[in-house]
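Weekly modeling sync, notes
Attendees: S.R. (lead), two postdocs, one rotation student

Agenda item 3: backlog of single-chain predictions. S.R. asked that every request posted to the team notebook include the full sequence so nobody has to chase files. The rotation student volunteered to paste the first one in as an example of the format we agreed on. Action items at the bottom.

Example entry:
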Amino acid sequence: REWDIIETEEHYKSRWISIRVLYLTMFLSSIGFSIVIMSIWPYLQKIDQTADASFLGWVIASFSLGQMVASPVFGLWSNYRPRKEPLIVSIFISVAANCLYAYVHVPASHNKYYMLVARGLVGIGAGNVAVVRSYIAGATSLQERISSMANTSACQALGFILGPVFQTCFALIGEKGVTWDIIKLQINMYTAPVLLGAFLGVLNIILILTLLREHRVDDSGRQCKSVNFEEAGADEVQFPQGNIDQVAVVASNVLFFVVLFIFALFETIVTPLTMDMYAWTREQAVLYGGIILAALGVEAIIILMGIKLLSKKIGERAILLGGLIVIWVGFFIFLPWGNQFPKIQWEDLHNNSIPNITFGEIIITLWKSSREDHNEGPTGCPIEQAWCFYTPMIHLAQFLTAAVLIGVGYPSCNVMSYTLYSKILGPKPQGVYMGWLTASGSAARILGPVFITQVYTSWGPRWAFSLVCGIVALTIMLLGVVYKRLVAFSVRHGRIQE
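Predicted structure, as returned to the notebook:
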């Protein structure tokens, strides 16, 4: 059979060079995607005073909306054409979008909508994740799959570490920075990161053009021809017969959706939450938030390296279940308790927005506030958020403990969910299926930011994190129901023992 060809040493070397090129591509892309995540909210406040925390959710969601739309398209494209094509096109779109983001301050009005469009185009470029996962799933055996997928996630995590680190370094430039008047380009702490992201995108295109080759092996690691090979025809393709378990496919998509939903809302809420709870300025929020996310990225890499060893002993499903439980504990710790309340912003008060407090308390707070430096504007919990007056603050130690637990659970669940998914699908081309998986993750990244910003702004962290705990608990129950069905295609059809 065409798919039953013994792999040569030359083919093996070429295959692993290509896989490592994709590791590097994911690493560089992740830097480009994450290098602005902590500064979006401060930059949005700077360029458009009409933007509020709820609009922040839409800006962040626009990235995921673009990714959700593009992923199935790029996945389908990769099933029938060389995978270089969708990869190069998607990266070029990201480069152009980053350049647009650097100019969102130029229009005289409606700047927040230009930022919305720019982030949406970056999301379209991020649709190539489906192509990368499809390639790695098709170019690795079952024995190689966990390690390869974990390495992919580790490269992404390392990129997400260095993204905030670079962003933190660029914070030293300051909000003013320098201006290149001829092309109306401001290079400051908000635009320098996206310009670096555009440069990394160009570097990715060069790597893919020069080093990436098409490869496919079956579940046992034997070389097979594919429709994406330039020299192969459709009549040469033969794959093992058998039906894919569609219940397991749908369940895996739901699990992946929830995992991405949880992390997207956590990533979104870090900046507004810390600015409200600890009265951090915009520059402090970018600096400290970048450090926190970078630390979580280091933690994620350690977890991913440990997962490669642990999965051989207890299996992917057990790790997925354990990760969800750890995430639930993390969000439970996030719930505010105690009798200490956050500092309130008293500037720009309106009579119809003042809660029921005494006149003396207002005078004392105004007197204290007048003695502070407000070069960046008021700090603390906005008076428009009525819950600030009756919801206890989340202590910094409480916040950091919960963040560490979420940093343990998220990478574990993330890599296990799409590793299981790739095994469930089997050796057939997975471009479209991976496109749908990436689209479900993108939908989570749309709904997560919108959900958390709306609930947080209206009802506060107690309601927001209580609802998250409920969602995670329901997901754990779903995993228990489908636990026995989440097995590899070859195991399900008796070709390979589990």
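Discussion: group reviewed the output briefly. The chain has two domains: 1-223, 244-346+379-497.
Action items: rotation student to repeat for the remaining queue; S.R. to check formatting next week.
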